[in-house]
């Protein structure tokens, strides 16, 4: 009976959560999701594998109210495509990422939006409230910011958030219930 | 709040003839006249950086090109750059100003670079070496034409000096020694004539009162002071010490051929992310970088804090505190604090030639009871004053005097407000927070005007009947004008002035438009 109530409440998902990650319980998951080690997911984040599975790499930070959604159309064979998110990315508060793929060391600032036809490479920086909707592949170390979406190439990728990650991994368990690491078990 | 007061609905006429909202006017405590920004001589009080609040005297600021030496703006997005510290330095020249060689102790030192937290631009993007000093001393980019510019400036300075000298030579009498008797009699003559002819010249008197207390006899006057008094330009007795030497300059040469465009300019794909936008180029007018790789941190522009001085009596009207951190004023004679404020509470629809009710609210800014009464807009007696101001301003050839001044407000309605008195209770800042009920006067209280609707603390609302002119068309503006006379108590009045004054100002209320009738 208890299980039935739970199933009603939650949308069905299959999650694989690696050991060493900090994933809060109060998140929204949908579909097949895999979360890598050292990744930190704040409460109220959403990972919605709507059209296909989502694979999130290691060392990412996904902040509150951010949405990572797989909106990819099925490939030529009619098979669902997987959304791969690389390592050490930062998804700040309220960002929406529906990108084709996400590389490593990217920063999506608060309230930014990346549409389903955009491919994010490595070291990109998408400024607060910037919207990328047109089909393109972002070059490496691209910075987009401001109301005019000023673009430029940075010399370096954004600095890694190692200390922030360590701090969150220490602090989040004190105040939130965490999801236990597991290998592809559904609920 | 400030925005609602800045709206051009309730306008007050300044001594010079322009009409402005109450918050943009000042009351000169010495002339007891309203002054607007055109009637004030604006003086630079201090220059300061809004980012680090470092203040500089104007002279020094000019030497530093009015820019802060330690704070930088991002050349890409113009936000302030923030200083970052790392233990791992980068860049070609670690051995910068500190002179420390890169060695064992280099490990302990911290390296600093600027980075923009908004667009992630950093000085490392353009290969600027990191520094070991945190604040200040960031090297300035050398302009390629600096020597040429200084050469030209020196040249034109010398030319100006030579011209001035030539001009003075023409005026100066041909004596090689100081003829004291001649000048003193000349000056006495000048001053005497001035006094007799323009006995009522306010400008002269006011100037006299402040400065000309010095003895008029020749012995007490220095030559330069005497000349200054009679309005002659200063001349130099040392004119024969030699002529001004003008340094030679090489004139610029026009070049016939211009640089050819690169061959592949039309073939190559343009990468906009590497090319500077126009605003980015204009932000650095001396370099105007074409490529993002040529960016250099922009030093922050200093901002000014200015004080205002009355053109007529030359007293300070507005004086901020020197500390740039403080937002207070040493002296602020804004009309907002020195005259009752008039607000429009409600209006009824207007029809030409028909009276409609308008409720006005009067607010007392003073800590004492004030009587206000109303009068028709009488003919102005301040014309001469305005002339003085305009004359003084035109001396400085200010553009605003020609274009920015609003001269006439056409009054298109009349009312029954005249010959009434309203008593405003003193302002009590603490009482504003109390929830006191509105005081509605009893119906047959003969001591209170029957049109007084309510009173609350220092505020009183009255009802007036406004009749727009009968020749107005639907949609025309209804503007009511009257003058307000109020009692003003001088707290620090000079002994020869009365402590209580009756001051007046002319006010224009834009009440709305004539109703466009529904039938048409």
UniProtKB/TrEMBL annotation, chain A:
One GO MF term attached to the UniProt entry: dynein complex binding
InterPro entries, alphabetized: DCTN6, Trimer_LpxA-like_sf
Localization (cell): Cytoplasm, Cytoskeleton
Entry GO CC: dynactin complex
Stored CDD domains: LbH_Dynactin_6
Main location (coarse class): cytoplasm
Highest taxon of the lineage: Eukaryota
GO biological process, one term: mitotic spindle organization
Keyword terms: Cytoplasm, Cytoskeleton
Keyword Kinase part of the UniProt annotation: no
Main function: Part of the dynactin complex that activates the molecular motor dynein for ultra-processive transport along microtubules.
PANTHER family membership: DYNACTIN 6 (PTHR13072), DYNACTIN SUBUNIT 6 (PTHR13072:SF0)
Family indicated by similarity: Belongs to the dynactin subunits 5/6 family. Dynactin subunit 6 subfamily.
Protein name: Dynactin subunit 6
Species of provenance: Bemisia tabaci
From TrEMBL, chain B:
Protein localization: Cytoplasm, Cell cortex; Cytoplasm, Cytoskeleton, Microtubule organizing center, Centrosome; Cytoplasm, Cytoskeleton, Stress fiber; Cytoplasm, Myofibril
One of the record's GO cellular component terms: dynactin complex
Pfam families membership: Dynactin_p62
Coiled-coil boundaries: none
Region Disordered: start-end pairs: 197-218
InterPro entries: DCTN4 (IPR008603)
Keyword Cytoplasm: yes
Family, as annotated: Belongs to the dynactin subunit 4 family.
Subunit structure: Subunit of dynactin, a multiprotein complex part of a tripartite complex with dynein and a adapter, such as BICDL1, BICD2 or HOOK3. The dynactin complex is built around ACTR1A/ACTB filament and consists of an actin-related filament composed of a shoulder domain, a pointed end and a barbed end. Its length is defined by its flexible shoulder domain. The soulder is composed of 2 DCTN1 subunits, 4 DCTN2 and 2 DCTN3. The 4 DCNT2 (via N-terminus) bind the ACTR1A filament and act as molecular rulers to determine the length. The pointed end is important for binding dynein-dynactin cargo adapters.
Protein known as: Dynactin subunit 4
Species: Bemisia tabaci
């Amino acid at each position: 009976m208890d299980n039935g109530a739970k199933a009603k409440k939650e949308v069905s998902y299959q999650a694989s959560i690696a050991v060493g990650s900090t994933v809060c319980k109060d998140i929204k998951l949908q579909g097949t999701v895999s979360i890598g080690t050292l990744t930190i997911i704040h409460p109220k984040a959403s990972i919605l594998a709507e059209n296909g599975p989502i694979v999130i790499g290691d060392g990412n930070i996904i902040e509150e109210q951010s949405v990572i959604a797989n909106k990819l159309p099925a490939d030529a064979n009619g098979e669902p495509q997987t959304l791969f998110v690389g390592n050490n990315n930062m998804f700040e508060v309220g960002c929406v990422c529906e990108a084709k793929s996400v590389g490593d060391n990217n920063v999506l600032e608060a309230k930014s939006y990346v549409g389903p036809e955009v491919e994010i490479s490595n070291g990109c920086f998408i400024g607060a409230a910037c919207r990328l909707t047109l089909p393109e592949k972002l070059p490496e170390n691209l910075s987009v910011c401001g109301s005019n979406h000023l673009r430029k190439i940075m010399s370096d990728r954004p600095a890694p958030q190692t200390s922030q990650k360590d701090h969150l991994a220490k602090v989040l368990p004190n105040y939130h219930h965490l999801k236990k690491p597991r290998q592809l078990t559904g609920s | 709040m400030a925005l609602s007061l800045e709206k051009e609905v309730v306008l007050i006429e300044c001594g010079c003839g322009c009409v402005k909202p109450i918050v943009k006017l000042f009351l000169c405590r010495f002339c007891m006249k309203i002054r607007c920004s055109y009637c004030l001589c604006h003086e630079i009080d201090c220059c300061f950086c809004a980012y680090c609040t470092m203040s500089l005297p104007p002279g020094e600021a000019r030497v530093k090109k009015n820019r802060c030496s330690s704070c930088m703006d991002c050349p890409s997005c113009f936000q302030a750059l923030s200083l970052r510290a790392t233990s791992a330095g980068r860049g070609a020249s670690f051995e910068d100003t500190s002179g420390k060689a890169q060695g064992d102790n280099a490990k302990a030192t911290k390296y600093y670079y600027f980075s923009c937290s908004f667009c992630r631009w950093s000085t490392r993007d353009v290969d600027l070496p990191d520094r070991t000093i945190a604040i200040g001393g960031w090297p300035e980019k050398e302009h390629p034409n600096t020597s040429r510019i200084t050469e030209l400036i020196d040249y034109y300075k010398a030319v100006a000096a030579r011209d001035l000298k030539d001009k003075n030579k023409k005026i100066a009498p041909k004596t090689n020694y100081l003829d004291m008797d001649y000048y003193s009699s000349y000056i006495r003559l000048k001053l005497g004539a001035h006094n007799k002819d323009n006995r009522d010249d306010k400008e002269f008197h006011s100037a006299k009162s402040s400065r000309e207390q010095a003895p008029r006899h020749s012995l007490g006057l220095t030559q330069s002071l005497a000349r200054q008094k009679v309005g002659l330009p200063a001349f130099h007795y040392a004119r024969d010490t030699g002529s001004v030497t003008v340094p030679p300059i090489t004139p610029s040469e026009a070049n016939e051929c211009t640089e050819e465009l690169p061959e592949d300019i039309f073939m190559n794909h343009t990468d906009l992310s590497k090319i500077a936008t126009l605003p980015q180029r204009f932000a650095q007018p001396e370099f105007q970088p074409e490529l993002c790789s040529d960016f250099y941190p922009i030093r922050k522009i200093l901002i000014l804090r200015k004080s205002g001085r009355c053109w007529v009596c030359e007293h300070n009207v507005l004086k901020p505190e020197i500390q740039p951190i403080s937002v207070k004023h040493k002296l602020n004679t804004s009309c907002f604090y020195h005259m009752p404020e008039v607000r429009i509470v409600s209006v009824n629809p207007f029809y030409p030639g028909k009276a409609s009710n308008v409720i006005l609210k009067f607010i007392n800014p003073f800590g004492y009871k004030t009587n206000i009464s109303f009068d028709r807009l009488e003919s102005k007696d301040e014309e001469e004053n305005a002339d003085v101001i305009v004359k003084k301003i035109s001396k400085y050839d200010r553009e605003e005097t020609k274009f920015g001044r609003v001269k006439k407000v056409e009054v298109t309605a009349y009312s029954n407000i005249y010959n009434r008195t309203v008593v405003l209770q003193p302002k009590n800042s603490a009482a504003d927070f109390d929830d006191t009920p509105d005081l509605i006067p009893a119906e047959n209280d003969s001591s209170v005007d029957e049109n007084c609707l309510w009173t609350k603390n220092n505020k009183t609302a009255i009802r007036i009947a406004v009749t727009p002119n009968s020749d107005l068309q639907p949609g025309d503006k209804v503007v009511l004008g009257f003058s307000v006379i109020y009692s003003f108590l001088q707290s620090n009045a000079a002994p020869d002035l009365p402590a209580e004054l009756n001051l007046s100002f002319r006010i224009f209320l834009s009440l709305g438009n004539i109703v466009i009738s529904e039938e048409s």
